[in-house]
């Protein structure tokens, strides 16, 4: 097993400009990406903030909460050791997060957590202060369609495999796992896995874990903890009721400053668009960037004319009324993509945040809202992007002398057609075009004659011409099919490589889930991956199994 870096130039846009350190983007951030000592400056700024008026959660309260939520995990020791580091005033965190997908969702979730762990280790060594890796589970997320499925292989294709469960618009941390349906769903996942030395042990572990879980977030956290059990990754369930009670003070500030929050968010969005980029998040001016649980459903709040209004509902509250609800039931409140980063900043001493490409863009709009609370927006370190290369695929690539940059960077079907053309010397397209042109020319006088004689005959002649073109097209398709059948084995190998490297024409990390990887490499193989010398530098990684 080894890793290799390749340079994949991302599509033109904000993410690529950020990696290339485009000068104009510095206006959108308080810390410039990869600038000299940017994380040292951030650590110094956090140290000064300790005695500021906005102190956030008391560290002892935070530590007590985290120790409690980690006590029933199967392998808590390394995480508990890191949690206790937070008792030290100089301790900071590297944080990244994701919603609670089934089987942890796509591979990029694993890569995000890996980036958090590697960055924390690196910065603890360089800054010589405790740096704790934290994974922020967006347990309040109620977008069930995003978390209810994984892709699995069926009949040589990647297909969505959703769990049968009702979407009741409640958060993942509150949504109970339907155990009977979950085990049926897991059987569908397992039957798609090829039998390896690790399959039986893997199935047994997942089934056993599932029996101990009550919610989607619970299942997610226990699987992720297992993956990173020796790395000390600390998990924050953002929608845990005990944490919500600790966050009451900042929800109060958000409500009281709502007029300014809305204004500053729109300013940040405008500044981003003025740089020439499309708006990464569409937010109405009336959006309050908060949600409230109403009748067990997570409902968006709007704010207009001094009142908070439940979207698609007739309930409304004055600031005073909403603050009263907050005081009595803080667990009913949750954040959206704008206020979630602010809540992270209030709860944790954030040295840096680890975004994916999409997250990076909407964070680029948030500087004014951070500044509203007299904070600087934390540094943003893009997460690792990686492609796993199975051994058979690696051998094929080496044999045909393709570059991974080409295979991963270009459109898959176009690559396939170009490759097929390179396997033969028959000028099919050229000859077909010449024949079409000749037939059109030869047939033209006949159509003209029919036009002069009778409109009905003219229409018939046009249909006749179309029929001839269709027949030529049919023959062309049969010629191509003959080529494909002749090179069936070679084409199959090409398709198998694309099937793994760029499934469904998308980055592998967005389609394949971690259990597919573990079925190939096992727990020991996952440990080897975590111990690979992987640099957090924005370059794409290849992992050869």
TrEMBL record:
Keywords: Ligase
Protein name in UniProt: Putative cysteine ligase BshC
Known role: Involved in bacillithiol (BSH) biosynthesis. May catalyze the last step of the pathway, the addition of cysteine to glucosamine malate (GlcN-Mal) to generate BSH.
Enzyme Commission code: 6.-.-.-
Matching Pfam families: CC_BshC (PF24850), Rossmann-like_BshC (PF10079)
Family: Belongs to the BshC family.
Domain Bacillithiol biosynthesis BshC C-terminal coiled-coil: 386-545
Residues of the signal peptide: none
Residue ranges annotated for the Bacillithiol biosynthesis BshC N-terminal Rossmann-like domain, each copy included: 1-383
Top-rank taxon, per record: Bacteria
Native organism: Alkalicoccobacillus gibsonii
